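Here is the promised in-class demo. Please do not try to memorize the tokens; focus on the logic of going from shape to residues.
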């Protein structure tokens, strides 16, 4: 049985210049549900279909349980993104599908609330997360995929030094439809290009 935080206490807080990343816990529910609710129209074109109970406390508990399993099994880590100056919740970033052995690779997913979009916060959060992935987790390759028409996400990945590697056919089911995604990747040896 887990006590206090849903994620193990060993989950580090990752600090950037303007943002910090912290593992979510039960106390974040209200801020998370509010931000997701006001950002629904902004997020839904790019995400898998939301479950009917996705913004409920029980839906949030299931999400935390999935995050905890990722971390416990060393398959990933999930963080919420906060603004340093006032601790406002901005969005989230998740590293999943960590593969060790010869691959040393993981996949990033991220979202930002509508009130904070286009202000550079995700650029900073991505820089912090990449530093963690390459320096602390010792991964060699980080992948991210987005819909080809998601211009803000494609520009974000370009700024962060990711390279486009092609189209993944019918990669994810978005809003009930299997959609092609543009695959991006960044290697630990690629030059650093963004600040947090």
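The designed amino acids, position by position:
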């Amino acid at each position: 049985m887990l006590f206090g935080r849903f994620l193990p206490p060993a989950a580090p807080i990752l600090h950037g210049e303007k943002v910090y990343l912290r593992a979510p816990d039960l106390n974040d529910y209200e801020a998370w549900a509010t931000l997701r609710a006001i950002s629904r129209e902004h997020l839904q074109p790019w995400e898998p279909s939301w479950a009917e109970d996705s913004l409920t406390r029980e839906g949030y508990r299931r999400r935390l349980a999935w995050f905890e399993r990722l971390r416990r099994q060393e398959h990933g880590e999930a963080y919420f993104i906060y603004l340093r100056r006032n601790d406002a919740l901005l969005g989230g970033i998740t590293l999943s599908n960590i593969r060790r052995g010869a691959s040393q690779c993981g996949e990033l997913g991220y979202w930002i609330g509508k009130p904070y979009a286009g202000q550079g916060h995700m650029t900073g959060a991505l820089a912090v997360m990449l530093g963690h992935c390459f320096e602390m987790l010792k991964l060699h390759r980080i992948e991210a995929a987005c819909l080809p028409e998601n211009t803000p996400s494609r520009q974000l990945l370009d700024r962060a030094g990711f390279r486009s590697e092609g189209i993944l056919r019918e990669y994810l089911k978005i809003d009930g439809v299997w959609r092609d995604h543009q695959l991006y990747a960044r290697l630990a040896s690629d030059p650093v290009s963004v600040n947090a």
